[in-house]
Specification:
Blueprint (H helix, E strand, L loop, with lengths): L17 E2 L5 E2 L6 E5 L2 E3 L8 H26 L5 H20 L9 H14 L5 E6 L12 E7 L2 H4 L6 E4 L12 E7 L10 H11 E12 L5 H7 L2 H10 L10 H9 L3 E9 L5 H6 L8 H14 L2 H21 L7 E8 L1
Parallel strand pairs: 4-7, 5-6, 5-8, 6-7, 8-9
Antiparallel strand pairs: 1-2, 2-3, 3-4, 9-11, 10-11
The protein binds zinc ion.
């Protein structure tokens, strides 16, 4: 393990851990040993009260992986003409490289794919380098390495092994093993909506504790919504539970953006920026290509239309470019609770 720049504490006793000659970390109070593997420190071990949770979260990760694979497969049907496919692939590569540097190229590339990275890039713009904590980091986002010392926490050691962060924690997000005020920035991507409501109080207190005073946090979150396709989805509570809450590892903390913002502010944070967003086009297939589409002719039409469109990646991309211009205008003008996702930035007061 390279030099660890963060003070790690025992999740139970809150005492700073000591390094033993063997390389493992030890709690000076309860003498618990924590395994170190490369730059990964494991706080879960094989005992621990959260074994049940681990099982739940592991299922969640598997489902999340399966879902992104499914989404990728929908997009994999390439336009059949080999030369066009080639030109398209090169253009796409070009724009995706450019977009990392220049946000205004946004409109020419795939807005729905790029907007996450753009949101975080804008967040770090003009901020000094610092200590960054990525919650539920999974394999991590290389982008964060550019902006400071990156620390990721996740329950799943297999995905942590594929991450390029400076320090990785296999641990419980409700018992963060960090000393108070260690981080300048906290970030998360598609994560908050997975924290069950019953645990959110502990969760936000932990964030408040480890973030520096005056530090910032940026979260990219899937939300509940008042847009018409969500109002339609809500009309069938059982299907809503099945396809919008339990699917994709459980959106157990799905809530309206305005409520989420108010709640987080209640913990002593101040909202400084919000970005309202609608679903990506393929979300209609992921959520509604099931019993739902038999309930409404319009929804069935949208799902079938998206399916057909996405078989031709090149045409899909052209349509996306045009559609995303209107989507962005609508997103800017719509009420916050029409959002399907929001990017929110809070300052720690
Ligand atoms: Zn201890």
């Amino acid at each position: 393990m390279e030099e660890c720049k963060i003070n790690l504490i025992c999740p139970e006793c809150k005492k700073i851990l000591r390094r033993r000659d063997s390389g493992t970390l030890e709690c000076p109070a309860c003498k618990t040993l924590f395994a170190v593997e490369g730059n990964i420190v494991s706080f879960l071990g094989n005992k621990g009260a959260i074994a049940q949770d681990l099982n739940y979260y592991q299922q969640w990760q598997e489902q999340a992986d399966a879902t992104s694979k499914q989404a990728e497969n929908y997009r994999k049907y390439f336009y059949s003409h080999a030369r066009l496919r080639n030109i398209y692939a090169r253009l796409k590569k070009f724009f995706h490289a450019k977009i990392k540097e220049n946000s205004t190229l946004y409109l020419l590339a795939d807005y729905f794919v790029a907007r996450k990275d753009i949101f975080f890039k804008d967040f770090f713009k003009a901020k000094p380098s610092g200590f960054i904590l990525d919650l539920g980091c999974g394999r991590g986002n290389d982008l964060f390495n550019r902006f400071g010392y990156s620390v990721g926490i996740d329950f799943n050691i297999d995905v942590l092994r594929e991450s390029s962060y400076n320090l990785l924690i296999q641990g419980d997000i409700l018992k963060l093993p960090f000393e108070d005020g260690q981080f300048d920035y906290i970030v998360s991507t598609d994560f908050l909506e997975h924290i069950p409501f019953a645990r959110q109080d502990i969760f936000y207190r932990e964030l408040k504790r480890v973030l520096k005073k005056g530090g910032y946090m940026a979260h990219f979150v899937t939300t509940d919504s008042r847009i018409f396709w969500f109002r339609f989805a809500h009309r069938f509570p059982e299907l809503f539970q099945k396809h919008l809450i339990k699917a994709i590892g459980g959106h157990y903390g799905l809530e309206f953006p305005s409520r989420l913002i108010k709640k987080v502010e209640g913990y002593g944070f101040k909202l400084v920026h919000k970005q309202k967003m609608l679903w990506e086009p393929w979300e209609f297939i992921l959520r509604f290509d099931n019993e739902y589409k038999e309930k409404s002719r319009q929804i069935k039409f949208i799902v079938n239309f998206m399916r057909r469109l996405m078989k031709h990646d090149f045409i899909f991309h052209l349509v996306t470019i045009v559609v995303s211009i209107f989507v962005r205008i609508y997103e800017a003008l719509m009420p916050v609770d029409f959002s399907n996702k929001i990017g929110v930035v809070f300052k720690n007061l």
